[in-house]
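Is this the right way to post structure tokens for a design question? Let me know if I should format differently. Anyway, here goes:
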């Protein structure tokens, strides 16, 4: 097909202007969203349990319209494990980027500390606070259902 004559190259809607406000938040994994398990004596690549107080702050930011890039110093070979972990726990993300720079600390004028009360730059809307409570209730209902299912299975196997 001759694409020049079809007219694909110079017709169609005008490209939208790039968004002026940046909507991405880069969020660390180990020690921020997941309990850190790695130590020099135990160099495991397993991912710890969620740190729920921080997952909650991520939820609030997502509900307020922020997009999440999980930015981890883990290698790309851990990508599938990270994706599976996030999906298993129902943690929202839009992309995963592995391989941070090796540094003892990240000093940045745009930084928010993981232990700050709110992760959304500029604070939260009240809509976000209400919605986050609903999301949290749903998540806990789901985990109780899952625990009941596992418990039933284990009891069944014991017979
Ligand atoms: Mg970390």
């Amino acid at each position: 097909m001759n694409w020049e004559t079809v007219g694909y190259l110079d017709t169609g809607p005008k490209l939208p202007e790039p968004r002026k406000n940046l909507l991405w938040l880069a969020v660390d994994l180990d020690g921020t969203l997941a309990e850190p398990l790695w130590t020099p004596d135990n160099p495991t690549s397993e991912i710890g349990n969620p740190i729920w107080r921080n997952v909650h702050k991520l939820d609030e930011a997502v509900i307020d319209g922020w997009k999440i890039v999980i930015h981890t110093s883990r290698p790309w070979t851990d990508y599938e494990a990270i994706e599976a972990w996030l999906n298993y726990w129902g943690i929202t993300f839009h992309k995963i980027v592995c391989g941070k720079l090796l540094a003892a600390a990240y000093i940045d004028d745009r930084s928010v500390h993981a232990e700050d009360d709110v992760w959304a730059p500029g604070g939260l809307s009240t809509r976000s606070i209400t919605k986050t409570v609903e999301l949290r209730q749903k998540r806990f209902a789901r985990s109780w259902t899952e625990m009941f299912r596992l418990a039933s299975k284990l009891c069944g196997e014991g017979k």
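Format looks fine. Someone answered above. Worth noting: The chain has one domain: 20-102+116-157. The mean pLDDT is 87.
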